[in-house]
Amino acid sequence: MAPVAMRLAAQSLSDAQPVPFWLEDPGKPGALPALTGTEKCDLLVVGGGYSGLWTALLAKERDPAQDVVLIEGHEVGWAASGRNGGFCAASLTHGFGNGLSRWPGELPKLERLGAANLDAIEDAVARYSLDCEFERTGEIDVATEAYQVEELHEWYEEAERLGLAEGLTLLDQDAVRAEVNSPTFRGGLWDREGVAMLHPAKLAWGLKRACLDLGVRIFENTPGLDLVSAGAGMAVRTPYGRVAARRVALGTNVFPSLVRRLRPYTVPVYDYALVTEPLTAEQLASIGWKNRQGLGDSANQFHYFRITADNRILWGGYDAIYRFGGKVQAEMDHRPETYLKLAEH
Question: Taking a C-beta distance cutoff of 8 angstroms, is the pair 221, 74 a contact?
């Protein structure tokens, strides 16, 4: 990039606040008290992200009489569940193309299961009145190079062959620019039903409320320190107490698992995003992004971008940073080199 353009990109970040955008929402709920002393329950869930929250919610739905406790090391939704791009995708394979290359024989079943899962999420959003800005607008995979146009055509043809093309629309250059008027877009594949846009932190906070309403006991600022056998069940020690349970479900994502042999199987990879100020009506009209789909370009190092409920543009990706040793540390939450790269792009 030319020095002038690089300088302008850097200047655009001068007033930026290096904080997780979604977590700065004024509607953020207060933290619940930490666990102290000894507790007993039927099911203990460790981790207050999506995996832990859905586990606790589904457990109470299936058996309202069972006693469910959830402990979270910080606050519900504060980590990856509250900081992602807000793309709620049906795909269980990180995209159709990736699934096709890795599990071609199982892909039809995986696609059906993923679609059913997204439908169930949408149903839960409505049933529990989760105010998470859920918009099932779909996502367009956009091509910016000629070879990517060919690849999108191949994916569409393969989806047709497998009977999975319902809801997919192949877009040529004019059609994709009628959806989002970028001169760099040469084509696109619009999955109209398989992706929803949402506010990720509000989803986590809404699930927290739904769990509490069903009787789940939640303790925040309560990390699980170790997992040991305790009679016919298990027990987890915390900084100020201990929980004994008949069963324990671990929803700790890339944080070190309480089952040590599982730790080598989780790899923390960081990506980062920028969010603009709210666009004016004129700015939004000039882009022509009227159907509010999520967007992702088709390169191996890809960008994802979307419109928020208050008409900001969030865009991120490209850099996928793995740091030696696989540590998760607060000082890695921000990476100025990536922010500058995204601003330049």
Answer: yes
β-strand pairing of 226-230 with 233-238? antiparallel
Using a CB cutoff of 8 Å and minimum separation of 24, what contacts does 223-227 make?
A: 223/71, 223/73, 223/74, 224/46, 224/71, 224/73, 224/252, 224/258, 226/258, 227/258, 227/259
Q: Same structural domain for residues 94 and 184? A: yes
In angstroms, what CA-CA distances link 177 with 4, 194, 286, 299, 307? 29, 21, 12, 19, 16
Q: For residues 93 and 97, give the distance between their C-alpha atoms in angstroms, rounded to a whole number.
A: 9
CA 240, distance to chain mean position in Å, is: 31
pLDDT tens string 230-282: 989 999 999 999 999 999 999 999 999 999 999 989 999 999 999 999 999 99
Rg (CA), the chain: 22
Does 251 lie in the same domain as 119?
Answer: no
228, burial (CB in 10 Å: exposed 0-12, middle 13-18, buried 19+): exposed
Which strands, in side-by-side order, build the sheet including 37-46? 217-219, 68-71, 37-46, 241-250, 233-238, 226-230
DSSP characters for 126-161?
Answer: HHTT--S--B---EEEEE-SHHHHHHHHHHHHHHHH
Q: What is the predicted pLDDT for the residue at 3?
A: 78
In which domain, by residue range, is 73 found? 31-81+210-265
Q: How many domains does the chain have?
A: 2
> What length does the chain have?
345
pLDDT of residue 1: 59
Same domain, 285 and 230: no
Classify residue 14: in a domain, yes or no: no
**The pLDDT value given to residue 329:** 85
DSSP strands (E only) in the chain:
37-46, 68-71, 87-89, 139-143, 168-171, 187-191, 195-197, 217-219, 226-230, 233-238, 241-250, 273-275, 294-297, 303-307, 313-317
- Burial label, 219 (beta-carbon count in 10 A; 0-12, 13-18, 19+): buried
